[in-house]
Amino acid sequence: MVVFVLSCDKYRDVWDEFFNLKDKFWPDSDFEWYVVTESVQYERDGVKTITGGGDWSTRLRNAVHAVKADYICTFLDDYFITENIDNQLIHDRVEFMRTHQVSFLNMDDGFDHIRHADGLEPFDKDFVKIPKHLAYGVDTAGAIWDREYLLQTLGDGDYSAWQFELDRCKEAASEEGLKGLILMDLLQPLHISKIPVIIQGAYYPPAIRFFKKQGYVINCHDRKVMSTWDVFVYWLKRKGSGMKHGRKFMKWVGRKVFGLTFVSED
Predict the structure, then answer these.
(1) What does pTM read for this prediction?
(2) Along the chain (266 residues), what's the average pLDDT of each consecutive run of 10 residues?
(3) 11: Cβ–Cβ under 8 A, 6 or more apart, which residues?
């Protein structure tokens, strides 16, 4: 297995933060690590750069073709690690995938949407099957992918990570649903931050405070930090989009009182 940190040139300032935390919480990792980006080279011991040009899908596809590995572990650049990772456990996961011919192993159920899905079917110890028709059942989460399944899922297009997730949602809504043997690891052993680290290109203050308590200070000199107003707007939009009762009222308040816009009108 190799590990890809999927990024782009404009996020180059984040790479040190990611790998500082990786070295802090996963110092004995013996996997090969790569930053996958457009054109900028990253100089750091133990990390290689794959420059693939194009949009997100093209960079990832080119990176897969550039390495000789049966399995690909993927992080996004702002998937900061929060606690110690058991290196042997990750090796055991790779062997488990090989033994059971697993296509995709989710290791970052960040919004708990898989864990809370109806009718989850257990699969061996510490694993459940991801429902074939679950929206975002396969997404850009921290995960381990079977190489060929990843290439088949990416297809031939040049598109963004967000389009990738929309396409998987359409696949989940189809009659056949999501392909392959797709599982979630209930232990979530990559320990990716449950608090979003970067929102709309800016550091999220609660994440800065969280990592400071963990003994790590994020360098914010090269990237904007969300203002109190930005945080409030983010909170209001999350409430407006997530409330089952009163959602329309929350969005009405946001539009009329604060002049906010929302993705949907409902």
Answers:
(1) 0.90
(2) 98 98 98 98 98 94 97 98 98 98 97 93 96 97 98 96 97 98 98 96 97 97 96 82 53 56 54
(3) 37, 77, 78
